[in-house]
């Protein structure tokens, strides 16, 4: 069923620049132990939810990738900007990769984070050994032609890193270096690993409500860390449905946010089945 990572590793070179970037980010996150405050931790938790729950889970994933609901264009631009603040790539890159994942789940060549290549490949090695068809904009943009049409999304795809500058300046003005360390570095590292667990852990641990052709599973603690994304088997069985938690105990905070938008008259055409 699976092919080993070493069988194809020679075709993809290790990216030292990417590894250096992640090493620096993790190192600065560890520095948080020396500048801890409850206020700084609160900033980290809030931005984890805002950038992760609202920006990635609700916007990049359910709104842009699967079009599970619609919002006014002005609001979509705001929400996508929040997603870009998560430091997980621009919207075209993120959506293209995830659509490839759904179209070719666990295929060692066509799924960018194929779980069939092992836990650590699907968790983060796919980033450290980048396949150009998933990382070169001229190649991956074909998987998101709807987003490529938007000039602002093309700009975000090139410049999402720049958004950390005004955020960092705001955090420094509000609480000094501890807010910067926790609001950018601690938050980013925790959010990365939370998101990556959906690629890795939920393809090998948990239970299944649906029989699917892949190894996707529902994992309660991953769902807590990712605001409902851990109900991954449900999602793979019904990828365009806006609600991931289908049973009463399957808590889905991202769905709650969509419901709030609906009650405000801002979310429409919500896919429910």
Q: What are the key terms here?
A:
mainly alpha, 0% strand, 273 residues, 15 helices, globular, single chain
Please explain how this structure is put together.
- With 273 residues, the protein is mainly alpha-helical.
- The chain has one domain.
- The chain is built from 15 helices and no strands.
- Helix 2 (16-30) crosses helix 12 (177-199).
- The radius of gyration is 18 Å and the shape is globular.
Which helices and strands appear, and what pairs or packs with what?
Blueprint: H1 6-9, H2 16-30, H3 38-65, H4 73-84, H5 91-103, H6 119-128, H7 132-135, H8 137-140, H9 145-148, H10 151-159, H11 164-175, H12 177-199, H13 220-225, H14 232-237, H15 253-263
Q: What's this model, at a glance?
A:
This protein has 273 residues and is mainly alpha-helical.
Strand content: under 5%
What is the helix/strand order?
A: HHHHHHHHHHHHHHH
Number of strands: 0
The percentage helix is 55-70%
Largest beta-sheet characterization:
none
What would the principal axes of the Cα set say about the shape? globular
- Which structural class do you get from the secondary structure elements? mainly alpha
| Low-pLDDT ranges | 1-10
Radius of gyration: 18 Å
| Average predicted local confidence, pLDDT | 95
Count of discrete structural domains: 1
Number of distinct helices: 15
Q: Distance between termini?
A: 31 Å
């Amino acid at each position: 069923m699976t092919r080993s990572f070493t069988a194809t590793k020679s075709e993809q070179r290790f990216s030292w620049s990417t590894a250096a970037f992640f090493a620096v980010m993790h190192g600065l996150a560890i520095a948080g132990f020396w500048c801890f405050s409850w206020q700084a931790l609160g900033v980290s938790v809030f931005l984890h939810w805002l950038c992760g729950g609202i920006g990635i889970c609700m916007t990049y994933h359910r709104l842009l990738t699967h079009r599970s609901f619609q919002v006014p264009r002005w609001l979509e631009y705001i929400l996508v900007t929040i997603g870009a603040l998560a430091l997980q790539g621009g919207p075209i890159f993120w959506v293209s990769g995830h659509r490839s994942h759904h179209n070719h789940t666990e295929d060692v060549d066509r799924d960018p984070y194929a779980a069939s290549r092992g836990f650590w490949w699907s968790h983060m090695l796919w980033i450290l050994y980048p396949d150009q068809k998933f990382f070169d904009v001229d190649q991956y943009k074909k998987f998101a032609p709807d987003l490529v049409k938007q000039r602002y999304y093309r700009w975000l795809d090139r410049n999402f890193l720049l958004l950390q500058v005004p955020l960092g300046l705001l955090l420094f003005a509000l609480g000094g270096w501890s807010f910067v360390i926790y609001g950018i570095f601690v938050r980013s590292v925790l959010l990365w690993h939370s998101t990556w667990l959906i690629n890795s852990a939920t393809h090998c641990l948990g239970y299944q409500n649906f029989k699917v052709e892949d190894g996707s599973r529902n994992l309660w603690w991953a769902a807590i860390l990712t605001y409902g994304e851990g109900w991954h088997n449900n999602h793979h069985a019904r990828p365009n449905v806006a609600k991931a938690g289908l049973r009463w105990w399957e808590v889905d905070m991202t769905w709650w946010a969509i419901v709030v938008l609906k009650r405000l008259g801002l979310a429409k055409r919500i896919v429910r089945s």
